């Protein structure tokens, strides 16, 4: 039994190593320092483990699951002899027939593997024979036709039984679910070879994967290395001349035959051994993907640490019972994985962490510094409040949480984002899913950021609440019909950083009310950052409600969290 060692290298190879460990199980490898050790026997039937991992992890996102999971609904209505079957249930059934069963059964990727499941079956024809049930004529009601509708439902259930049994069989899951993960997960990391080669003649994706990645690795391990002058560019082991390269990896590799200008002196020396190519094929198992976005934390102090932090990310995104995949976010998972350190006092204080995000078919890189980690810790509760907040701008959905974390990772303040969010709200723009309290949370996070970079140190969270309350008291006294004009002028002054205009507006408004100008205005002259913080905090109060009446009315203290 031969033991193989793979050492940590660049971020992409490290993602492959983490993916390999995820696929075979941590208990089946030995992790020491920067190396992963495993027996060559693990490569036997690895293709089965490979697809089984993706199917299990991403099961509920797969169209295969959408087909077979409807069985639970059918069983529920059959159990009570359709007593609870109502008009809503009929609508859901017809939606399933049209948008799930008929739609997916005719997809080209499914059709290509039907013979591997059962050569005598014809799921395409089954789909064609499915029709919606329970159509009502004008003036007919569901209750009037209920008995006839139930009979139709029972008949269509029999057809669905056949379809679901076919898809949910051992071979059905093996091949149909595998087709799903190929195009929703695996294709994010690599393309153009094996089952993702449009010209491949092999119908069985498992056989294709073994022939492309596993068999060459096993062959490489069994032969004596030749041409010691040629070395793998990743592991530095001897290889045959020009055997394998990185061209199959998305956004990283290139066609060495057509793009020789990409390498020094037009001579390609970026060759890899079969084992490294095999590890690179595991990259999609190292990243965690949701909604076509992926994330990997290259926290490579040790392989064990590298695996552990990405395991937290994966668990937070794919397996948190408190979150649905609809609202799952790589950014939320990232922040929680690196701030939840109650049970695991890690080394995050000691080193910067490389974060790789896969967005819009492109890799994006950030370094999470000690400063950014501190901001996330200080802002943990405020960030949590923003998870489901956002607005729609044209065809783009902007999520508060994602936009905030992205800006903080890029070392940007949030003032422009705060301004846009506040402007949309005070102008009653459509498709805004937040309130002024959420803008207050943005302001709190931004204040933590400014303090961390030492751009503003004099305002506490309690002081901001005091300014909010001053704005709220102003709102109660100021005429409603004048507030839109007031908002426009103040927000414009804040956006242009015009302190004189801001002061004129505030002084004139308080003079109109016959009230004393609040003392907080004096603070707005200390710096640009303080001016904007004071101004937006006041506007949150002017346009929102104060919900924390138990806060310190004297401005709080600097240690308040």
UniProtKB/TrEMBL annotation:
InterPro entries attached to this UniProt entry: CRISPR-assoc_CXXC-CXXC_dom, CRISPR-assoc_prot_CXXC-CXXC
CRISPR-associated protein CXXC-CXXC domain ranges (all copies): 229-288
Pfam family, one: Cas_CXXC_CXXC
NCBIfam families registered for this protein in UniProt: cas_CXXC_CXXC
UniProt-recorded name of the protein: Type I-B CRISPR-associated protein Cas8b1/Cst1
Organism: Listeria weihenstephanensis
Gene: cas8a1
